[in-house]
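Data availability (excerpt). The following record was deposited with the supplementary files.
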Amino acid sequence: MPGMSAMPNMPNMPAGSTPSVTAPAAPVAGNAVSIDNFAFAPANLTVPVGSTVTWTNKDEEPHTVVANDGSFHSPGMGSQATFSYTFTKAGTFDYVCSIHPYMHATVVVTP
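Predicted structure:
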């Protein structure tokens, strides 16, 4: 185009090459927990007060999300079902699947 100069050679690029720009990957939802292969992932999640955490059951078997202190309790969730809970106070919240109690994880809520 008139008035535009050619792009200078970039270091470590062959002459005549054009640099490509790749968009950054979409961020991973920071407040999402997957239930997959009979495990919560991540097993330890830290969020600020006021955050809503959403669990998604990616297994074919039903699961629940039940806080050890009784602060939250999901219904049984079939495959691809979700459960969300908003944490309104700081603390450490350990939870299990009541159907499979060997499945356990923790949400740490910071002020």
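Summary of structural features: The domain at 32-110 is CATH 2.60.40.420 (Immunoglobulin-like).
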